[in-house]
Amino acid sequence: MSSENSVSKPTSETNPPADFAPGNSRTLVTHEEKARTQSDLELFAKLPKEVQNKIRSTLEPDELPIFVLEPDLSLRLSYVSSYVILTSRRILVVAPLDSGESPSGNPIVGSRATASHSRNPSESFVIQAWNVQEVVDLVLVDRIGLGTIEMLGATSRLYVLRFSAGRFTTARLFVEKFRALKLQLSIETKSRLSFGKPESTIAVLAEPEASICPSCGGTMQPGESTCRDCAPEAAPDTTRSLWRLMRFAKARMGIILFGFAMTLASTAVGLLPPYLTIPLIDKILIPQKNFELVPWYIGGLFGAAILAWIFTWIKTYVLSIVSEKISADLRNKTYEHLQSLSLEFFGGRRTGDLIARVSNDTERICDFLSLQLLDFVTDLIMIVLTASILISIDPMMAAVTLIPFPLIAWLVQYVRTQLRQGFARGSAAWAEMVNVLADTIPGIRVVKAFAQERREIDRFAKRNQNVYEANTRVNWLWSAFAPIITFLTDIGLLIIWAFGAYRVANGDMTVGVLTAFVAYIGRLYTRLDSMSRMLAHAQRAAASTHRIFEILDRVPSVAEATKPIPVGTKTKGRVEGSIEVRNVCFRYGTRQVITDVNLSIKPGEMIGLVGPSGAGKSTFVNLICRFYDCASGSISVDGHDIRSYPISDYRSNIGIVLQEPFLFFGSIADNIAYGRPNASRAEIVAAARAARAHDFILRLADGYDSLVGERGQSLSGGERQRISIARALLTDPRILILDEATSAVDTETEREIQQALDFLVQGRTTIAIAHRLSTLRKADRIVVMEKGRITEIGKHDELLGLDGTYARLHQAQQQMQQDSSVISEAISP
Amino acid sequence: MNTTVNANSKAAIPPISLTRDHWGRLVFVSADETPISNIILTPLFPISEPGRWISITASDGREVACIENPADYPIELQQLLREELALRDFVPRIQRVLFVSGNTEPCEWHVLTNHGETKFVLKSEEDIRRLSPFEVMIVDSNGGRYRIDDTRTLDRKSRRHIEWYV
Known about the structure:
heterodimer, A: alpha+beta, PH-domain like, 6-stranded mixed sheet, 26 helices, B: alpha+beta, 35% strand, elongated, disordered N terminus
């Protein structure tokens, strides 16, 4: 973060069109009053009124507030809000009027000469101020969960700020801004001394730059310590999550409504038979006459059965099609969106989780919609219809039979919940047991080597015992569950029988009606069990929905330009290959990874990039590929900012050969042609020949048709690398990135790969990252990066002459080579 | 770069001299008239384009020439290539599946091929592979290969066995 840059170059020049890079504009703070009130408003908007007033009254007329930090802990570590304001000349601390803690952490020795206290009994805050000049430095210390900023004066510690983890990022920015301001002021003082004319502009970054979230690669807002997407969120509301699926259901509303109508029809028809039995019993069976009507009733019952069968069939079919369709849409949408997200999002351990989201979660939603929700809705319809039928037949009787129903439903639900908790404990114990397996079976060599078999067996047995105990605890409830349902059903039926018998005896009801009641209620009770599962199903489906929308809600960190410039109009979409890197800074979470890098590369030039790990080499290359956008500064290719090109057109000009080449499952020919699927066989063979891959491909059983990749034939590292070189060669990239292409292989293989690489780099702008300096012997220039900055640039010999980092690296590697040759001589007879 | 990728499809095709010696082995005579014996013919795309792209390889695995399209060469050479390749690849074409021991691998298959009846053990479902919509290749537990050129020509029962996998 260099403040000089922003003085000399206003935003509009460094970042060509501002709409490509939202959030990294630097605001110039001037002494104009207008600017002041505006920045006041933004900075202080969130502070309490009293604090705002207090600060306003303290600020001198031409003093500008720059940044606000809100430490949330007192010196004794209780949660107390205080406010620290960095202004153009002072640091103001607004702290609650409190228990007489010494602010500096030192015993109070009289009042400080420099700190101006202003105390007023009616106010609950006290304000203290220090001039920026008298504060020598701010020292930030991050401990776990506790941050401290020590304000150091020339002779003593002036003040200590403490805050919790949530403020780390802002605290860091506060310190950076303070340092930038101090630098700025010292420059001004010098210029005042030398020219006698003060510079009137104070330019300190008024707004922190947005940065990239280290865990997912999403864009992070200034001042956030985790990006919003990665911050854990409380479990979402079930209904609201599920409701979001409506977005996907809307497109298929017609067929959904049809399915719903079928559900209604099939349920209604299913309720007909008991209704028909009333006259059958009352008019025919009990009086024992009119037997000629029996075929009609039987026919009616048969008809109802047939209709129920057909309607149920149609409804199940239609609604399962709908739910399949919805979950397929969901899968497509999720996968499509995944492809647009940044590389970081796919980092290591997430892979399995992402695969599960696209496959299992959508599957679960599909099951929920097509089976569980459908059943539940059917049951609800059935309850409503049954209730209305019962009421229409005999309201009194209906009241008696339906009143216990909610109570019983609640009981079933209660037992289910208990059961679910029991099962959850059981599966947790199970997972613990599996963990032992997953731990010890891959590590079996260590177990055996240290003769710890007995201990591992005991460990497993103990976990296994836990599984047994957890399952036993739930089993007594589980085994009681089905009998409980039966018992409750029986009780419900008993009530009907008792009350019914009473009413039949009094002549208030016929036997036929009683039978119908028994039949209806019996059906309701059998559905209770499956209904009680609904809540759990809904919660699980909601969790799945939430996990999927978590992906869909993410905003890709690299945005397509609003008015893209076509790539290489005269040269069929190929760029010339000149790269101009200007003042590029890049942050990764709170870490500054690349600081003020400037580099121009001529078309066809080969640049070797060396430096210790963590120096920002890979990040630099990622910026050139536009896997991220830089926070400030610009990268231009052929004179245009790369953010102004359409992303995929631009990337098609770039070829990458990575340390670990990835081959997809498929034939070798498919893998070579990955970047250009329509390449002819002649081109594929030619590329493979050029990459020195042809000879070993020839030896495979199926030649170019041999299957490779995860489930295919295994190739050696060097062979895979040569295939990936052929792949890069076939796309004829103008800009070539070699990211430690030869690090993962032995020296013999390296030599083979090197031949292929030498051919590949011809005529292309190449950036090669390498640990082994020997691989860079063909490089036109070598760039040394350290801690995010370029420290040395030049040819091999020049850099050796500099006697700097490169020379040291070179010497170390020479030394190692000699050592290993000495060893190999010693070993060989 | 462009000259290497756009291989010489239309350029003049250099004559290739390939003969059989008294031991029945192939001999290649290169442009500087050095004979190289013990020549091996390797199709580069044995599955997707078996008739073309034939590499002429010396016994040490070095490629000495490559025939992109045999049709560009004299009829005698084509004949020689055909004979040699026919012996190189033994891939019976399955015409009918007579019996499959079960739906879980490993399972035993009895099949009728263009070379007669045979049986083999299928190790895993991955060993049955679809090459194109109707072309299927089966690799048995010993690495032997079988092909079906067009599944539509099989009878219903055979087809059901194949479609269980692909």
